[in-house]
Specification:
This protein is α+β, with helices and mostly antiparallel strands and 391 residues long. Helices cover 27% and strands 25% of the residues. The strands form four sheets. It has an eight-stranded mixed β-sheet, sandwiched between helices. The protein is elongated.
């Protein structure tokens, strides 16, 4: 995607055309081969790194004037550190292997209008002493563009992660294959959240048609034209989320014991179905293969013209899997108001959020101090309880 972004952005294109060696990775712009003088009056080469502010496949005005640097402290030709641009000394690691340890600040009154102006300014400040020592030194070597995002699952850059400086933490999902069983409501919200991570493959399973009631308890806003076509849920959601990412695999049928083996290669499985008999069989199967899973459920009832109930997230891993007999429903409950009430999207989304939070804890994205394997949220008293903790 580096070439596409550069071709669509006049400031980056101008930098490339003038000979700067550019790379785009983790939502950042890397400018390689920047000469500088160190404190020993030696000429070295470093890498400047800037966050990218994007609108689709085009750059917009940089949101910060600060730039990061991979290298030693740049000095003047006499080996004296250039103090006028000093900002901080904080280490930051990127997925392409580059580690920056310095950041510089040189802010014009109106900020930088574009990335050409920003890169050119810092490159001139940092490289001028080196060029004064050796007239053959240049910051514009006309080297090829480095392309390392060719296998990205996303169809455009994730600049949200780069703004938050969490790109390297996001790499923890990069090789995962995740399955979501059931897209009735909670499962659709799970998909919405996981689609925005770097998981390699997302497999979605559901045999139902996407109807009006699904639209009222799922993410987004389906048009009446879509509803009139009666698409399979799998086809509808694959179409929605394939606009932003690749590797969503749709399976528009129900999972039954005969096809459980399709999950054998999964790293994580989310179970969001209302058939408790299949749920029990599926949990037993995944346990036998030590495939970690997260089972979600809602129990909602009407009392005194109000709804009460509980949101449940039950996790199974090879380290803890002896609690399902008491935590997962064994049969279908005809008194559960969830079977008929369709306007509880907030419970579906909450259930999904709790499930995805747990998955991210298991993946090492979030710190996990309790290692709970069963979480419930009670609606009427807002009580969140963690149980089945690994001691």
């Amino acid at each position: 995607m580096s070439q596409l972004l550069i071709n669509h952005s006049q400031d980056l294109k101008r930098l490339r055309d003038e000979g700067y060696q550019l790379e785009v990775c983790d939502g950042h712009l890397f400018v390689h081969h920047i000469p500088y003088v160190n404190i020993h009056k030696e000429v070295k080469f470093g890498v400047m790194v800037s966050t990218l502010n994007l609108s689709g496949t085009k750059t917009v005005k940089p949101e910060t004037h600060v730039i990061m640097f991979n290298g030693e402290q740049p000095c003047d030709k006499n080996g004296v550190i250039i103090n006028g641009i000093q900002h901080s000394s904080v280490s930051k690691r990127f997925s392409n292997g580059i580690i920056t340890s310095l950041s510089f600040s040189n802010k014009p009154p109106q900020g930088y209008l574009n990335y050409y102006e920003k890169v050119k300014t810092y490159a001139t400040i940092i490289s001028s002493p080196a060029k004064a020592l050796d007239e053959n030194i240049t910051e514009t070597p006309f080297n090829p563009i480095i392309e390392n995002d060719v296998n990205s699952v996303f169809k455009y850059y994730d600049t949200n992660s780069s703004r938050a400086n969490i790109e390297f933490i996001n790499e923890k999902f990069i090789n995962q294959k995740v399955a979501i069983i059931g897209l009735g409501g909670t499962g659709a919200y799970i998909l919405d959240l996981i689609a925005k991570t770097k998981v390699n493959e997302i497999h979605i399973y559901d045999g139902d048609i996407f109807l009006n009631h699904n639209a009222f308890r799922s993410p987004g806003a389906a048009s009446i034209e879509v509803l009139e076509k009666k698409p399979k849920k799998v086809d509808y959601y694959k179409g929605v989320y394939s606009k932003m990412r690749n590797n969503i695999f749709g399976h528009s049928y129900y999972l039954i014991e005969d096809n459980f083996k399709e999950l054998n290669s999964m790293d994580y499985v989310f179970i969001s179905i209302d058939n408790n008999l299949i749920r029990r069989s599926l949990v037993s199967y995944l346990n036998s293969l030590e495939i970690p899973f997260i089972d979600v459920g809602l129990g909602v009832n009407s009392v005194d013209d109000c709804l009460i109930g509980t949101v449940r997230v039950t996790t199974g891993t090879k380290y803890k899997n002896d609690h399902f007999e008491n935590r997962i429903p064994a049969s279908n409950n005809p008194n559960n108001e969830y079977e008929t009430n369709i306007q509880i999207a907030e419970l579906n989304s909450l259930n999904a959020v709790l499930a995805v939070l747990k998955w991210k804890k298991l993946s090492g994205f979030y710190q996990d101090l309790e290692n709970e394997h069963h979480t419930t949220y009670s609606i009427n008293n807002s009580h969140l309880q963690n149980e089945e903790v690994i001691v």
